[in-house]
Amino acid sequence: MSENKRMSRRSFVRLCMGTGALVAADPALLAKPREAPTSAQRVTLIGSDGNPLKSGDLEVGESYVFHYPYVSTPCFLIDLGKPAEPGAELETEDGRMYRWRGGVGPDRSVVAFSAICAHKMSYPTRTVSFINYRHDNARYNDLDRNVAEREQVIYCCSEGSVYDPAAGGRVLGGPAPQPLAAIDLDCGGDDVLCAVGTYGGELYERFFEGFGFQLALERGTDDIRAPTTGTARVWSISDYTSNRRTC
């Protein structure tokens, strides 16, 4: 056997031994690999005046809409008014595990999520939004189908899916099979908010396939898959849509 073949065999054995040690330490690695944030353009969020949006510009309890990582995919931006601590372990519909990275800003209270419901992909449009952030108290059926009440939820009235924005968009009730996809935010020393990636159960291709014609009409372009670049305009939800449906 040549020296190169012996070296390749030794390298393969070391790789197998190292992998076996990792799996022995954490068996979940074998069945459910952890998902890293998806690479996307770094985009600065801007207000209606065209200036960079700072976390201090957000009104606590108000929800805002911007489009990222594509020009046709809406997101919610929310200042919860309290820290959204990182660390929640979440799982996508197909069994991939990932960790919630928490809020940003001085109080770690600013969070962002895809505004596409994980059940039937209801999303906010200019005419109506069935999925909305509820800062006030809301009643819903939890995962055991018991009546529950709490504040600060993202509630989709289309089918009754409810999410917890303080814990990575975790499903609290309804038929949604996974949390909302998270938008990775950055807020540096200048307090300017930037979207830098996405992670979790992304539904973008399914969204394009199901709503492509409608999205093209709304955006006035067939290029609904164009990535958001440079900046992304942020609207308050009341300015973005004319009819917010709550339940």
Write the layout of secondary structure elements.
Blueprint: H1 3-25, H2 28-31, E1 38-46, E2 63-67, E3 74-79, E4 89-91, E5 97-99, E6 110-114, E7 131-134, E8 138-141, E9 147-150, E10 153-156, E11 161-164, E12 170-173, E13 182-187, E14 193-199, H3 204-219, E15 231-233, E16 235-236, H4 237-240
List the defining traits of the structure above.
disordered N terminus, 19% helix, single chain, 4-stranded antiparallel β-sheet, 16 strands, globular, 2 domains, 4 helices, 4-stranded mixed β-sheet, 247 residues, Rieske Iron-sulfur Protein, alpha+beta
Please describe what this structure looks like.
The protein has 247 residues and is an alpha+beta fold. The protein folds into two domains: 1-31; 32-240, Rieske Iron-sulfur Protein, CATH 2.102.10. 19% of the residues lie in helices and 30% in strands. Strands 13-14-1-15 form a four-stranded mixed beta sheet, with no helix packed on it. A four-stranded antiparallel beta sheet has the order 6-3-2-16. Strands 7-10-11-12 form a four-stranded antiparallel beta sheet, with no helix packed on it. The longest helix has 23 residues, at 3-25. The chain starts with a helix and ends in a 7-residue tail after the last helix. Mean pLDDT is 86; it is low at 1-37.
